[in-house]
Amino acid sequence: DWTPNAFVEETVEDLKVKLGNDKVVLGLSGGVDSSVAAMLLHKAIGKNLYCIFVNNGLLRKNEFTDVLKQYEGMGLNVKGVDASARFLDALAGKSDPEEKRKTIGRVFIEVFDDEANEIKDVKWLAQGTIYPDVIESVSATGGPSATIKSHHNVGGLPDFMKLKVVEPLKALFKDEVRRVGASMDMDAQLLGRHPFPGPGLAIRILGDLTREKVRILQEVDAVFIDNLRSWGLYDKVWQAGAILLPVNSVGVMGDERTYEKCVALRAVESTDGMTADWVNLPYEFLQKTSNEIINKVKGVNRVVYDISSKPPATIEWE
Length: 318
Ligand code: XMP
Known about the structure:
Layout: H1 4-19, E1 23-28, H2 32-45, E2 49-55, H3 63-73, E3 78-82, H4 84-91, H5 97-117, E4 122-126, H6 131-135, H7 143-149, E5 164-166, H8 174-183, H9 188-191, H10 211-230, E6 239-253, E7 256-269, E8 277-278, H11 283-296, E9 300-305
Parallel strand pairs: 1-2, 1-4, 2-3, 4-5, 7-9
Antiparallel strand pairs: 6-7, 7-8
The structure holds xanthosine-5'-monophosphate.
C-alpha cells in the first residue's frame, strides 16, 4: 500500500511542520539520493533550502556544469563551488588509496563548512541518506553524505556538523527513491544515473594523480559512457567506468613505436554493490569503443576489459 505519491504528500507536510521558517543546507552530489532529497525539501520550504554542489575536480567530463544547469532548471536554490584546484593541490604526490580518500574527505568538509558558514542562521543539515546507508558502513551512493559519515570522528567537529540533521529518505530503498523522484517529475536520466564514488576519479587513477591524468581519464570515461548510452546498454548496467593504469605499454603508430598509457574498462551488474558480476558487453561494442578511445584520446594506446567478479575482486580498483 506504499505509494510514491502518498509518500511525497506526507513527507512534504511533515517537513513543513518540522522546519517551519528555518534555513536548511544540503550537499548535492549529482547522484539520485541527494537530488531527490533536495526536491522534497524544495517542495516543502522553497528558497530556505540552500544547496551546495562542490566540484572536486574528480567528476566526470562536463559533469559539474551539466548537472548544475539541471539543478537550476529544477528551480533549486543551488550554489556551485568549483574547488578543483584545492582538491588537486591537496592530492599532489599522494598515491595510497586510503590517503587519497582521507584527503578528499577532509578537503570536502573544509569547503562545505566554509560555504555553510556563509548562510546566515542556518539551522539544519539535510542529507540524502537512504535505508541501506543506515545499516552499512560504506555507501555505494557516494557523494557528500558518504564522505561526511566516514570522517565523523576526526578532530573537532566542523560547524555544519553541529546542525540538526534532517534525512527525508532514511526509510527508503533505492528503487523507492527513484519512484519518489519520478512521481515528482524529475528527469529520468538523472534518476537512472549509475552510482559514482564520492572520491570520484581519484580512485580510478591508480597511484598518484596529476591534472593530465584526470583529463585523460575523463576523456576515456566519456567515450565509454556515451557509447553505452548510444548502444542502449547504459540502463542494463549497474555501474560502469574506466580505470587509468599506472603502466605504460608499447604500441605502434605509423612507423613510430609509442610508449603510452593503458586503460581498463569496467562494467558490472549488481543489486547493491556488495556482490557484482562483470557484464558480457557485445564484442562489437568493445571493439568500437576501444578503437574510438585509442584514436581520440591522446596518451592512450591500449584498452583492456576487466572480467573479474566481486568477490574476490572489488568493483573499484583502489
Ligand atoms: P567496491 O570497490 O568496494 O565498491 O566493490 C562497491 C561500491 O562502493 C563504491 N565505492 C565508494 N563510494 N566512497 C564512496 O562513496 C568510496 O570511497 C568508495 N569506494 C567504493 C563503488 O563505486 C561501488 O559502487
